[in-house]
Amino acid sequence: MPLVNARDMLTKAKAGHYAVGQFNINNLEWTKAILLTAQELNSPVILGVSEGAGKYMCGYKTVVGMVNGMLEELNITVPVALHLDHGSYEGALKCIEAGFSSVMFDGSHYPIEENVEKTKELVAICNEKGLSLEAEVGSIGGEEDGVIGAGECADPEECKKIADLGVTMLAAGIGNIHGKYPENWQGLSFETLDAVQKLTGAMPLVLHGGTGIPADMIKKAIDLGVSKINVNTECQLAFAEATRKYIEAGKDQQGKGFDPRKLLAPGFEAIKATVKEKMELFGSIDKA
Ligand code: 13P
Questions:
Q1: Does 85 qualify as catalytic in the annotation?
Q2: What mean pLDDT value characterizes the chain?
Q3: Binning pLDDT at 50, 70 and 90, where does residue 186 land?
Q4: Catalytic pick from 85, 194, 216, 223?
């Protein structure tokens, strides 16, 4: 099945009280592992691409070519959206042009009026081209590809302002952080989430920084209207750990263990296991 935008899958998720995972991709192994797991579990899925990862993979056109090729060659029939993660305005335009089916415009670092203006322009373009659009209010903490946020809680009134522009989904900062959570993390602000959900109604809400959030908090967030959860670091940690074990066990020095198809296989399996665990937790299995 060709790429789809994220609108239908997220509307269904919000109505059905589960969440669709966005898993960020970095290369061929990542993409293949995520797509195969989604297919095996009959789950919708969103492939996230940060601007940095897009550059690393030789640009958005390369990414679109790789993903479209895999959808066909691997006979993927579950709904898959290819989504720009934390895009700039220019980055969003480039991804729309390159063939992505969904983009995020992260205007959270602009004053709210400028965020509104730029988001409004992208709503019009995405509607015309049939893409879904994610907007952000209140920056997500931590660092991702050089974008550093302090982990604020969004102002629910500002969330409503952006939601009313007609975006498909909305990321609201609720004390969440990209990367590993520090020991003294205060947890998610369910008070903020509840207030945002009350003002934005049927709008699917997005939880960034999915790595390391305890299962009970994830479930509560889904109950309060979160329908898309982003996971990146956890797949990276799982991949690195499995690869390290392989090398530490000296397997790359046995036979043809140095062949990248063997060397990268444990990391590939580790990503599959991580994605499976998250899809079980988010409740998206058999929701394709
Ligand atoms: P983590 O890296 O913390 O899982 O966050 C991913 C994310 O929110 C991508 O936008």
A1: yes
A2: 95
A3: confident
A4: 85
